[in-house]
Specification:
The complex is a heterodimer. By secondary structure, chain A is an alpha+beta fold. Chain A has five helices and four strands, in the order ααββββααα. Chain B has helices spanning 17-24, 28-35, 39-46, 55-65, 69-72; strands at residues 13-15, 73-75. A two-stranded antiparallel sheet of chain B has the order 1-2. The longest helix of chain B is centred in the C-terminal third of the chain and has 11 residues, at 55-65. Classes of the chains: A alpha+beta, B mainly alpha. The interface between A and B is small, with 8 and 15 residues.
Chain lengths: 231, 79
C-alpha cells in the first residue's frame, strides 16, 4: 500500500528537528559541560571573555542556584554567609536572599557531590532531549517513505521515547533534587532553610501517557500491516 | 490480538487471472482501467503476491471478465 503523505512538509519537519538537535547539542550539552556547574572553573579566563563577547554574558550559563523557603523567624542579618539582596557584589558568598520568605542559594564553588547532582541531572536531561529528538527524526523520516509511518519500528521508537521521558526524566529529576538537597544541607545554610526533598512527577506522568499512545500505535500498525497487499 | 500475517505465510491458493485474461483476449491494463484498480495492484494479484482479495474487487473483476470466482482461484493442496 503506497503512502502519499505531505512529503515536502515532512522534509521541512525533519530539517527543523535536525536544527533542534544541533541547538540542543551546542546550547545544551556544550554549555552545561563548560558552564559554572561543569568544567567552567577549569577554563582559562580568556575563554569566558570570548564567549561573553560573542554570545553574551550568560552563554556559558549562570552560577547554579537553589531556591528554598526560609524557616520561620530567620532574620537576614543573623546569617553571616548569606547576603541581603541588593548588597554589594559578593563573589565568594554562598548565596543571597531574594525575598523575605525564600532564599536563593547561589553555588559559586560546588564540591564534587554537589556538582554530580546539579550537573548530572542537567546533563542527563540534555542527553535525554537529544535522544528523543533523534528518535523523532527517524520517525519523521518514515513519512517520506512508501510504506508510511504506521510501522512496528515506529511503535518501538515511541515506546523508547516513553521510557526516556518517564524513567530518564524521573532519574534526572531525582539527581537534581539530590544535588539541591546537598546544597541546602550545607552546615552554614541548613539552619536557615526548609530543606525538603522534592521531585518532579511530571516526567513519570508524561512517560506513562506516551507509553499508552505507543501501545495504541503498535496495534494500529499491526492492523495497517494486515491491510498490506490486500487488493 | 493475533499476530499479523507474515509475508511468506504459506497458502495453497493459486490465482488464474492470467489464464482467464488470455482466454478473453484482454490485457491487464485494459482490465485495470475497467475495474478501476491500479495495474500495479492487479499485477500483485496476478503474480500471486496478494495477501487477500476484497469481495468488492473480486465482484468487479468477475463482472468485467464474465466469469465466476472459482475461475479465478484454484486451491493447490501440494504447496
Amino acid at each position: 500500500m503506497k503512502h502519499r503523505g505531505a512529503r515536502p512538509g515532512a522534509l521541512a519537519l525533519e530539517i527543523l528537528l535536525y536544527i533542534g538537535v544541533a541547538c540542543t547539542a551546542v546550547l545544551g550539552l556544550l554549555r552545561t559541560l563548560l558552564g559554572s556547574a561543569g568544567f567552567g572553573g577549569m577554563l582559562p579566563g580568556w575563554a569566558w571573555g570570548v564567549s561573553e563577547r560573542l554570545f553574551g554574558p550568560y552563554f556559558l550559563g549562570e552560577v547554579p542556584s537553589v531556591r528554598a523557603p526560609l524557616v520561620n523567624g530567620v532574620e537576614v542579618h543573623t546569617t553571616p554567609e548569606l547576603y541581603a539582596y541588593g548588597a554589594e557584589p559578593v563573589p565568594t558568598g554562598r548565596g543571597e536572599f531574594s525575598g523575605p520568605f525564600e532564599a536563593r542559594v547561589s553555588v559559586f564553588a560546588p564540591d564534587f557531590t554537589q556538582r554530580v547532582g546539579l550537573l548530572g541531572g542537567q546533563l542527563l536531561a540534555v542527553l535525554l532531549a537529544l535522544g528523543i529528538l533523534l528518535l523523532l527524526v527517524r520517525m519523521v523520516r518514515t513519512l517520506r517513505r512508501d510504506e508510511g509511518p504506521f510501522t512496528s519500528a515506529n511503535a518501538n521508537r515511541l515506546r523508547s521515547i516513553a521510557w526516556l521521558v518517564g524513567a530518564g526524566g524521573t532519574a534526572s529529576s531525582l539527581l537534581v533534587a539530590w544535588g539541591q538537597w546537598l546544597v541546602l544541607n550545607d552546615a552554614a545554610i541548613a539552619p536557615f532553610v526548609d530543606n525538603r526533598f522534592e521531585i518532579n512527577v511530571l516526567p513519570l506522568l508524561a512517560g506513562a501517557g506516551i507509553y499508552v499512545f505507543a501501545e495504541l500505535f503498535r496495534r494500529g500498525a499491526a492492523m495497517h500491516a494486515d491491510l498490506e497487499r490486500v487488493i | 490480538m493475533s499476530a499479523p500475517a507474515r509475508d511468506d505465510e504459506p497458502h495453497g491458493i493459486r490465482i488464474r487471472l492470467d489464464e482467464v485474461l488470455e482466454a478473453r483476449g484482454m490485457s491487464l491494463a485494459e482490465l485495470a482501467r475497467r475495474v478501476d484498480v491500479t495495474v500495479a495492484n492487479l499485477s500483485v494479484l496476478k503474480n500471486g503476491r496478494a495477501r487477500a482479495v476484497r469481495f468488492s474487487t473480486l465482484s468487479v473483476i468477475c463482472r468485467e471478465l464474465g466469469c465466476q470466482p472459482g475461475d479465478l482461484l484454484a486451491f493447490d493442496g501440494d504447496r
